[in-house]
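Feature request, filed as a ticket because there's no other form

It would be nice if the structure record came with a short human-readable summary line next to the tokens. Right now we just get the raw output. Example of a typical job, pasted below so the devs can see what we mean:
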Amino acid sequence: MREFKFPRSSDHDKWLDARNKIEGIIRPNRKLSANDIENLRLNSYEWETIIPHLDDGALIKTAGLYLHNVSLDQSRPYRSYNEAVLGMIAPLLVERLKDRLGNENGNF
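Raw output as currently delivered:
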């Protein structure tokens, strides 16, 4: 009798493929800078793997890009916590962090 195995999730396989593809980019004990990722063309699975390895500047730049691409209903006041975080709180945090890092490190 043949042993039954659950099929593997295609999402899991895509995540593993992405992880294998970018293993050469990620270095132990070194964060990726904005310059390191500037010309990368990655899919969602690859970005999910890379983002935890970004330095502060690259993370802020990426967060700003993601926030710029979020579509929100422009009605105010915001109707949910999600809308408030995406429409008001996260953009403010990104701007304040840019100011702080830019002043301390000459970034941005």
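Something like this underneath would help us a lot:
Residues 27 and 60 are 20 Å apart (CA to CA).
DSSP finds five helices and no strands in the chain.
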